[in-house]
Structures are given as C-alpha cells and as structure tokens.
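The following record pairs a protein chain with its ligand, flavin-adenine dinucleotide.
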Amino acid sequence: MAVKTIVILGGGVGGIVVANELRRLVHPEHRIVLIEKNSQHAFAPSFLWLMIGDRQAEEISRHVQQLVHKGVELLHGEVRGIDLAARRVETSAGSVTYDFLVVALGAELAPDSIPGLAESAQTFYTFDGADKLRGALRDFSGGKLAIVVAGLPFKCPAAPYEGAMLIADLFQRRGLRDKVDLHLFTPEPLPMPVAGPELGSAVRKTVEDRRIAFHPLQKLTGVNPATRTISFEGKEPVAYDLLIAVPPHRSPRVVREAGLANQGGWVPVDSATLATRDENVYAIGDITAIPLPGRWKSDVPLMLPKAGVFAHAQALVVARRIADRIAGKASPHNFSGEGYCMLEAGEHLAGFASGHFLAEPSPQIKLRQIGRSWHIGKVLFEKWWLAPPGAKKESLRLLIELGAKALRVPAAIG
Ligand SMILES: Cc1cc2nc3c(=O)[nH]c(=O)nc-3n(C[C@H](O)[C@H](O)[C@H](O)COP(=O)(O)OP(=O)(O)OC[C@H]3O[C@@H](n4cnc5c(N)ncnc54)[C@H](O)[C@@H]3O)c2cc1C
C-alpha cells in the first residue's frame, strides 16, 4: 500500500473536523498531519456568553490536542509558506510534504486597517477581546454604546445582532437598560442580507423591539479616540462612550502569497467538492469564496456566509472525498449548501434560521419563532463540540436526554 500524507492547515473548526473524520476513515498507515499555530482552541459562538459573564474563559477553550483523535499528528507551528509545485508546506517547526492538502486557515481580523479602530474599540470577535469586554461592560454604567460592523465580509452574519441583543439583556438584568443608549451600525442594508429581505426585516424588528437603534448602509472610515467619535462615509461623525467593533476580516497572508486566493484574498473552490484549481488541494471554511445564486445589490454577488456550520459540513465532505480517492473510488460526497444558525436574543431565548444556501434562483432560508429550545440547542452543541472525540457519542446521548427533559419532549435518538 502506498502510504499517503494528508496535511491540514489550521486546527480550527474545519481543520479539527477534517482531521478526525479522516482518521476514522483511512488506514492507520496513512499520515494525517494537522498544523496549528495556537495550542488552545476556543469555541467562538461562546465568546458572546463569555462577554456577558455567562461563561468563564476556561469553560469554552480546550487544548487542541484534547479535541483530535489519537493518530492525528498535531504539529504546533505557524504555516509560513505553501509550495504548490513541490507539494510542501513550510512552518515555524519545519517543513512537511503532502499528497493531499486541506487549507482551513480561517479569516484574520485586521483592526489596524481602519484609522483609530484598534486603539478605540473593544471586540467580542476574539477570545481575549470577549474576556476583556466583559470587564468594560461591567464597569459601564450608562451612555452611548455603539456596535460597529467595520467591513464586509465578516464571519457569522448573525453574531453582531446576537451581541447587541445579549448586551441589551445584560443591562436590562442589571436595571440599567434605560441609561444605555444602544446603537448598531453596519454596511449591510439589512441584517443577514444573504437570507433575503423577509428574514432580514424580521431580525431587524427583533433587534429594534429591544430598543437597539439599527443603522444600515454605514461604511466605517475611521475613529477618533481623542474626540470619541466614529466617522462613516458621507455622514456626520457620531459620538460614543463605549465602542465595540466587528473588525475588518482578511485572509492569512500565506494563502495570498501561495497564489491560492482571488483578488479579494479568499480561495475560490468548487462549491460541491471544495477542490481548488490545484490538484489535490482543497480549501474549506472561512478562507473560501463560494458565490451563491442571486445578488444582494444589482451588481454584488451573494457569497456563502463564513460560518462554523459550513466549515464543519465542508470538512466532512473533503475528508470523505480524500478517503475515497485514496481507496481509488469515485466519491459521491458533495457539499449541499444546507446550514442553520441559532440566533441568541437574550433572556435565554434564541431564533433559528435554516435553509438551503445553494438553492436556485436564490438561497431559501427560514426563521423560526424565537424560543427557549433553540437556545438550549446551542448550549448542547457547545458541550458536544468541547467534549473529547472519544466521549462525543456518549456526551451527545446525555445532552439530548437533558435537553429533552428541559423541553418536556421525548429524547429521540437512535
Ligand atoms: C463571536 C462569534 C460567534 C460565532 N458564532 C457562530 C455560530 O453561532 N455558528 C456558526 O456556524 N459560526 C459561528 N461563528 C463563526 C465560526 O467560528 C467560524 O466560521 C469558524 O470557526 C470557521 O472555521 P474555519 O476552520 O474556517 O476557521 P477557524 O475556526 O478560524 O480556524 C482557523 C485556524 O487556523 C489557524 N491559523 C491561521 N493562520 C495560521 C497559520 N499561518 N499557521 C498555523 N495556523 C494558523 C488559526 O489559529 C485557527 O485555529 C462565530 C464567530 C464568532 C467570532
């Protein structure tokens, strides 16, 4: 048997899933090498709960090694170069050659790309940022709080809205809601434009019902920390007391330098197979650019949102396709574009948006009524994700029983 080496770049959501699924599927002789620069992995959806004090930092992070199957070689190092011709990856811990490469390096945050933003704004888009913001929110006793989406695209299209609603709920619980003037600024025309105007209007209403002023079509140009004002293209400066930003996103430099990226910096892939233009190289998750049927302005194509739910589904497809290729079989596994999102609304309630993002002529997404069950679903997923791979099945069973008990429904799991 010819031994193959599969190298996975990035041990985040997509990288961990692809490594574990491949280890389950291919003969133990084949090497699976996962390269990750951080030793800890934090579960990003829980950053919102960390920010409002519903989680402690240690509850939502694990050593990457704890999340990968035995038999996955975890290489702790920074990817510094990808030589597609030589099929070699250069890292801070040495170089590795590959037969198959999976690029799952995610999106980086670039607060420095907007003047004044890095030094003025807090964020719940990083683990450390959410932990720090929790202190700032605790010390905030009133004034104008502005949440600003600094650029497009950004990961998890629901997160700024969830963050705003959880912050509104936090101040409500502390009896300070009337003293906090809460605003959300975004370059989008509506929340989650990819999901269509009906869903966007429903989310906008949910946000406004919580007395959060929604300001669409605001393109951030700069922040002045001295005057504590934010500037938007073609608008008068806006004053703030506390500024929270979703920083601009960009792809890691190493991907752009390798020639894998398009003009926008993201990696174009086949939307069904996740293959790049280069033989034996796949890309998944936030790093990819996948156009969808339909447009959100007459000239701007809709793109698949950057979300863990898609990174996860794509990782399973790529692992199965690589396993089939090693076995010399045609692979039936394709990415379908189905996805969902639990939208936290405060008071332990959440909405649920789900549907088919690759549907023709445009994505078909529905929003279910806000309720406690979606919130519980999100908590259950968090516990499942952070469980070690060997304990996942058992923890899922226990969690579903627990959830069913809370919801007073039968625990239906085969
Ligand atoms: C606040 C917040 C809430 C969210 N909520 C949700 C949600 O409810 N549902 C949902 O579906 N999605 C959610 N997301 C989005 C989700 O976290 C991402 O879409 C998902 O993590 C993408 O997976 P990925 O594997 O593409 O990238 P990542 O998970 O970001 O992993 C990329 C990995 O690559 C590593 N890396 C980068 N560069 C290098 C390098 N040069 N060398 C070595 N390693 C490197 C990084 O350290 C990282 O571990 C949320 C995100 C945030 C910020």
